[in-house]
Amino acid sequence: xxxxxxxxxxxxxxxxxxxxxxxxxxxxxxxxxxxxxxxxxxxxxxxxxxxxxxxxxxxxxxxxxxxxxxxxxxxxxxxxxxxxxxxxxxxxxxxxxxxxxxxxxxxxxxxxxxxxxxxxxxxxxxxxxxxxxxxxxxxxxxxxxxxxxxxxxxxxxxxxxxxxxxxxxxxxxxxxxxxxxxxxxxxxxxxxxxxxxxxxxxxxxxxxxxxxxxxxxxxxxxxxxxxxxxxxxxxxxxxxxxxxxxxxxxxxxxxxxxxxxxxxxxxxxxxxxxxxxxxxxxxxxxxxxxxxxxxxxxxxxxxxxxxxxxxxxxxxxxxxxxxxxxxxxxxxxxxxxxxxxxxxxxxxxxxxxxxxxxxxxxxxxxxxxxxxxxxxxxxxxxxxxxxxxxxxxxxxxxxxxxxxxxxxxxxxxxxxxxxxxxxxxxxxxxxxxx
Length: 434
Description:
- The chain is α+β, with helices and mostly antiparallel strands.
- It has helices at residues 2-20, 41-48, 86-90, 109-112, 156-159, 177-180, 221-227, 282-285, 363-375, and strands at 50-65, 72-85, 95-106, 131-142, 147-154, 192-202, 205-214, 239-248, 251-252, 255-266, 270-276, 289-292, 295-305, 314-324, 331-342, 351-361, 386-399, 402-412, 423-433.
- Helices cover 16% and strands 46% of the residues.
- Strand 9 and strand 10 form a beta hairpin.
- The chain is globular and about 70 Å long.
- The two termini are 25 Å apart.
């Protein structure tokens, strides 16, 4: 009920902002902030070394098909943060400090309607609908910025395999490895103690490596409600996640692109999905799973603008792929590709996007599920294929700082199972930058 009231209040605020500001015919915004420059104070503070990040995101979803009921659900997220330029404030050359808190509320239509999907149709839902410490980190640059070091509380998906969230379906949002091995690769809003070192290798290329604490408590909803906002070091650490990424940011034909290739190694042990510790099928013995001494995977991310002005309007395409180890990952692969066009109908800030992606349920795990159903009276859902998602959105900014993205999603074989009905979901993504 509290989330519904908050959502209603924010929708009213959005309407008032839209009504109180004149809309430009070309759809372009003179400022990225709904509350403007605070009478010049925002710019003054930025010049002095203090930059604020205040925002609100809400997502509505209604399933016209799929699941056990046709429902409408609302989820939202507040964002409150600041970046301190320590060189301007304290003459600490090349240093800055960032803190970001996020507060999530609401419900997810996929969960409440029992659609059975692996990838959320409302990407601001999850990791505990509560207050989170998302970033608390010091950043230090050396050698005129060629070496960049970060240390503190960080979500791994901010630096590695990072990607925008223009689409409301999680298949196309954020760092892709977190969508398939989210039990240890943690994307925002959750963070863990970490450090990252990035090297500018010249010719528009870079290489970076990180080390991130792996602790199951960070993804436990009950723990997050009690401690997700605290700056503590919880017990129960199982290992270290070490991602490595090589990136290239070329200008091809004068148009920007971004290409990333990476891999990761998690030193935490992982449970085998089919075998017990004696090498026998778990479904038969009911014993303890065979333990693997580590977990790993790899990814690629590519995005390229193909037309228009560099960094402005025009056509862009993207492709993403991630693969995790088969022995321990219930979902072990995700592929996604899409097209976005900025500036349609002569409206400079509007964007149209269409994408399709597939998240594969591991067939190795399906062997266990089939054998279990043969031997037991209770039934588990057999996930033996790919959950395929297609998404379409139109994004427009009626006034400065407010972006609306009505969208349509179609999810085929949710959860990668033939037992789940296909789902058609209508959504509305609203973003306000204050």
